[in-house]
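We emphasize that the prediction below concerns an isolated chain of 232 residues; any contacts that depend on oligomerization or on bound cofactors are therefore not represented. The input was used exactly as deposited, without trimming of termini.
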Amino acid sequence: MKIQELDFGETPWGAISLRRRFDRVTERDVHEVKLGDDFLMSSQFTTGERELARIGLAAVTGASLTVLVGGLGLGYTAATALEDDRVTGLTVVEALEAVISWHERDLLPDTEGLAADPRVRLVRDDFFDMVRAGRADRTYDAVLLDIDHAPDWLLRDDHGDLYTVEGFARVGAMLTDHGAFALWSDEPPEPEVVRRMGEAFEQSEAHVVAFPNPLTGGESTNTVYLAVRPRR
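Result of the prediction step, given as a C-alpha cell string:
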C-alpha cells in the first residue's frame, strides 16, 4: 500500500501530516490526517460528519441562517452545511494553520472550493478558548462541533470543561434563542451527556448515525448529540 504525504508540519499539538493512499477494498483514494501518533480523521467514512450538519440544521427554522463550525478537518461538515440554501454565512474555527492551508490550496478533492465560497470565513482560533472566553463576534443559528473523538475521549485534556453543564451553557450563549448545537462523537450515546445538555438547553437528544463499513463487512455507527433552544 503506497502512502503519499501531501503535507507535513509542526504544530503546538505535535507533528501533523496529510496523507493519501489508495484503498484496495473500496477502490478509491483515501485522505488521512495524523497528529503525532494519533489517526485524527479520514475520508474513508464521512457519513457522521455530514449528518452532523444535516441534523443540526434540520433543527433550525427560518431563512438566512448563520452557522459556526468548530473544527475544519477535511471539510465535510462545512461543505454539507453549505448545501443548505438557507445558509448565508458560515464561520469555521480551526486551531491549526496547516489545516486551513490545505483548503486554501485545494488539496482535498471532495471539498475543493470550500475556502473560496463567498459565504465562508475561515478563522484560526481555538474553539474551546473562544467559548470559554465568550469571544464569539455574534450569535449564530447553529453551532456544529467536531473536534474531539467523543465527550470522554479528548484530543486535549483542557477541552473537558466544554462537556459540562456550564460549558454547554456557554455554547448556548453563542446561539440565537431558537438556535441548535450539534456535537459529533465516535462513541455510542451517553445518557449523561444528554442530561447535561438538557440542563443548558430546552431540548436535548442523541441520534445514532449508522453506515455500512466495507472494511468489516458490517455496519458502524457515530453519534450526533443535538441540543435546541438554549435556556436563558
